[in-house]
């Protein structure tokens, strides 16, 4: 288990204050900031957001590994997720695949070590890490942090990153040169001749899109807690698709009916022992 530093809550609150202007004025029309970094063999994305959920609900929801499978399954590329006992804690077995129905034998498996580094009345820190990934990728890390605000709202931080070798770089270039051609991220790096923003592309755009998809999955999961228990899965699906379609330039991949059909099939599969 990762041990949280004593000043972690204070550090995150300080980050919220430093981002105050960007949280107020941004292209998302909501208190949300997205940053990303790219190095020769590593990609990382960070989302910071103020949300209208009580901290107690956030802590209860996101410190449960089974709930993380509810979150992960919303992502278009997640085919299956199951929390299982491991040698040193809980492991999330996650199959990642195509943006269509796929047999699990054809969907690469990532095994995330799940740890709750902190879960107090003042701070939550959850880490998912996987050493090995598909297509030359490695060192996956998803970190979720949260602190309560005096307004009754909650400040969240989601960090998503992974490393890649030369074969991974080639795989990403192949994707960006074919089905990923023309796709962009959220960071504006200038303006086009028509005055519209010129958004970052390439692998940095790729990590920004996935970071945002995971954040919107967390937000949709938390929002579904307000629905009746039997309606929460459908509420999550509808909420996630509506959320990503607010940013069609970056996140549109399929129509609502296709997404719902695919995820309902995957959800039923997830309920069966494997």
Provide tags for this entry.
alpha+beta; 36% helix; single chain; two-stranded antiparallel ribbon; 274 residues; 10 strands; disordered N terminus; 31% strand
Quick structural summary:
This protein is of the alpha+beta class and 274 residues long. It has helices at residues 8-18, 20-24, 55-62, 65-72, 166-177, 202-224, 232-244, 248-251, 256-270, and strands at residues 32-39, 42-51, 78-86, 89-96, 109-119, 124-132, 137-148, 154-164, 188-191, 197-199.
Could you explain how this protein is built, in words?
With 274 residues, the chain is an alpha+beta fold. The chain has a single domain (8-266), classed as START domain (Alpha-D-Glucose-1,6-Bisphosphate, Chain A, domain 4). The protein contains nine helices and ten strands. It has helices at residues 8-18, 20-24, 55-62, 65-72, 166-177, 202-224, 232-244, 248-251, 256-270, and strands at residues 32-39, 42-51, 78-86, 89-96, 109-119, 124-132, 137-148, 154-164, 188-191, 197-199. Helix 4 (65-72) packs across helix 6 (202-224) and helix 6 packs antiparallel against helix 7 (232-244). The longest helix is centred in the C-terminal third of the chain and has 23 residues, at 202-224. The chain starts with 7 loop residues before the first helix and ends with a helix.
Quick one: biggest sheet?
8 strands, antiparallel
- Number of H- or I-type helical stretches: 9
Mean pLDDT: 93
Number of strands: 10
Low-confidence region ranges: 1-6
SSE series = HHEEHHEEEEEEHEEHHHH
Q: Numbering strands along the chain, what is their spatial order in the largest sheet?
A: 1-2-8-7-6-5-4-3
Under the CATH scheme, the architecture is: 2-Layer Sandwich
CATH superfamily: START domain
The shape, in one word, is globular
Count up the domains.
Answer: 1
First-to-last CA distance:
27 Å
The helix content, as a percent range, equals 25-40%
